[in-house]
Design brief:
Elements (H helix, E strand, L loop, with lengths): L2 E8 L3 H12 L4 E5 L12 H20 L12 H30 L4 E5 L1 E4 L4 E6 L2 E12 L3 E3 L12 E2 L1 H4 L8 E5 L3 H13 L3 E5 L11 H13 L3 E3 L2 E9 L2 E8 L4 E6 L1 E4 L3 E3 L13 E2 L2 E2 L11 E3 L10 H16 L13 E3 L5 E5 L2 H6 L4 E7 L4 H5 L6 E7 L5 E7 L7 H9 L5 H5 L9 H10 L14 E7 L2 E4 L3
Parallel strand pairs: 1-2, 1-6, 2-3, 6-19, 8-15, 9-10, 9-15, 10-11
Antiparallel strand pairs: 4-5, 5-6, 7-16, 12-13, 13-14, 17-18, 20-21, 21-24, 22-23, 22-25, 23-24, 25-26
Helix pairs in contact: 1-7, 2-3, 2-5
Length: 493
């Protein structure tokens, strides 16, 4: 017998959970289905897991760097202890979600929400079959939301066994620090894991980069700080290199690189991490008769609605940006499209991001590469952390703040912050960009002192030609430039 719902959400990761709870807001009967772990990759082997590792690694790196001054001795970080701490954090979040689901119907005095464990398949426009432990049940809903997430991309020619040659899935079960590890892929995830492993100081890290620099989508000045920091931590960056072979020999990894100058080299390490992106989970999810449009990047959708009008797709399963905050936004937006009217349009232009590196990197809006690709004339101001009292107080002046504004109207195009507390003012800038506002308000605000966001204010003052500290005097620590017709020129300040 079919059980009927207003909406069925398949996948209980960040996007699916957000969609289910937004459905409850509309007093709709909703089923949330998950075949693996509640919270999905957003908790277990993705964002929360890796960022907890990063936090511990950052603390370990600080203690190792300042141990003598703090009278800290015999720092001996064990992977099993670190895993215990990480798992405690993950269990805490999962238990919170479980308790929330267990109590929600009682708290709201209704019977709208149901959590179902099992593997789901959409068998018709309104029908879903769930299989669990040898049993099968049929569900029916007016609307279906797909939120099954993604998994690490595997390259078929590599010997990935999740023990010696791993993706991020295998890392979560690693029980000791390897003496050495090679990371294939110098994007965000690869660089984050290079930061994590090098932070503990127990693993020699190799990073394979097919280009002449890591993070090719970011500005050169941002990349320069990150590369310098990684190399200071002992990371060996293989620039302009191509992996030609990787094999497991006697329990270790041997890999061959070919460089753009025609030379080649062979390296031996204990472990390998393959970090070359993620692929959507939509296999065996949709019956072929539905003719749902998909491509190699994911399920094709228009503002979360798929080619089947009552079926929606959100989060990593789509071809959109694969971030937890974006998935949650899409999940909520899809429900608002179905049952109401969204108060704001779904846009990806001003999403705030943070890369958990050393130092951390936060951004919103355009960087200079994007502004130049768009053919824009702009002005840019940059202030080194050494000019910010809070950074001086933290005894860490590595990093800078950079703001980009439109040449014609002073409207903010974007901002990048490299350094500790980098994300502290990103959201305020995102709001100003969304509202099409300029920098005048930021320049006149009274910011808390001492704080990193005071550096943002000084950048704005530079762009308005009224800075306290003058770029002409401190040219090595700050600058204000105009970019017009492909050429930079220093601004008088």
């Amino acid at each position: 017998m079919e059980k009927k719902f207003d909406v069925i959400v398949i996948g209980a990761g960040p996007a699916g959970y957000a969609a289910a709870m937004r459905s409850v807001d509309y007093k709709k009967r909703v089923a949330l289905i998950e075949k693996n772990k509640l919270g999905g990759a957003g908790i277990h082997n993705g964002a929360l897991w890796s960022k907890t590792l990063w936090e511990i690694s950052t603390t370990a790196s600080m203690l190792r760097a300042q141990g003598s001054g703090l009278n800290v001795h015999d720092l001996n970080f064990q992977m099993c202890q670190i895993n215990d701490e990480v798992n405690t954090a993950l269990r805490g979040r999962v238990n919170q979600l479980k308790n929330h689901m267990d109590q929600i119907n009682k708290a709201l005095n209704n019977d709208l929400f149901e959590y179902i464990e099992g593997s789901a398949k959409v068998v018709s426009k309104n029908g879903v079959v769930v299989e669990y432990k040898g049993t099968s049940k049929e569900l029916e809903a007016e609307y279906i939301i797909l939120a099954t997430g993604s998994r690490p991309r595997k390259l078929p020619h590599l010997p990935i066994d999740e023990e010696i040659v791993m993706t991020s899935d295998g890392l979560s079960s690693m029980n000791k620090f390897p003496e050495s590890i090679v990371i294939l892929g110098a994007g965000v995830i690869g660089c984050e894991f290079a930061t994590i492993f090098s932070g503990f100081g127990k693993t020699k890290v190799h990073l394979i980069d097919k280009g002449d620099r890591i993070l090719p989508f970011e500005d050169e000045d941002v990349v320069g700080v990150v590369e310098k920091s990684l190399e200071k931590r002992g990371v060996l960056i293989h620039r302009n290199s191509r992996l030609t072979d990787m094999k497991v020999i006697a329990g270790n990894v041997q890999y061959n690189l070919e460089y753009t100058d025609g030379t080649s080299e062979v390296f031996d390490v204990e472990r390998a991490l393959i970090s070359v992106g993620r692929v959507p989970n939509f296999e065996n999810l949709i019956d072929d008769s539905l003719c749902l449009e998909v491509n190699k990047r994911g399920i094709v959708n228009e503002l979360t609605q798929t080619s089947v009008s009552n079926i929606y797709a959100v989060g990593d399963i789509t071809a959109d940006i694969s971030l937890v905050n974006v998935g949650e936004l899409e999940g909520r937006y899809a429900v608002e499209r179905i049952f109401g009217k969204p108060s704001r349009p779904l846009t990806y232009e001003n999403i705030s991001t943070i890369m958990f590196l050393a130092p951390e990197v936060s951004g919103v809006g355009m960087n200079e590469l994007q502004a130049q690709s768009a053919g824009l004339d702009y002005r840019v101001a940059s202030l080194d952390y050494s000019c910010i009292p809070r950074a001086v107080a933290m005894r860490n002046t590595e990093g800078f703040i950079k703001i980009i504004i439109n040449e014609n109207d002073n409207k903010i195009l974007g901002m990048r912050v490299v350094g500790q507390h980098s994300s502290s003012a990103i959201q305020a800038i995102a709001l100003l960009i969304s509202d099409g506002r300029g920098i005048e308000e930021l320049a006149e605000l009274i910011h808390p002192h001492p704080s990193i966001i005071e550096g943002i204010q000084e950048c704005c003052r530079m762009l308005l030609n009224k800075s306290i500290m003058k770029p002409k005097v401190l040219s090595g620590a700050m600058y204000c430039r105009a970019y017009r017709n492909g050429i930079y020129s220093e601004m008088v300040n």
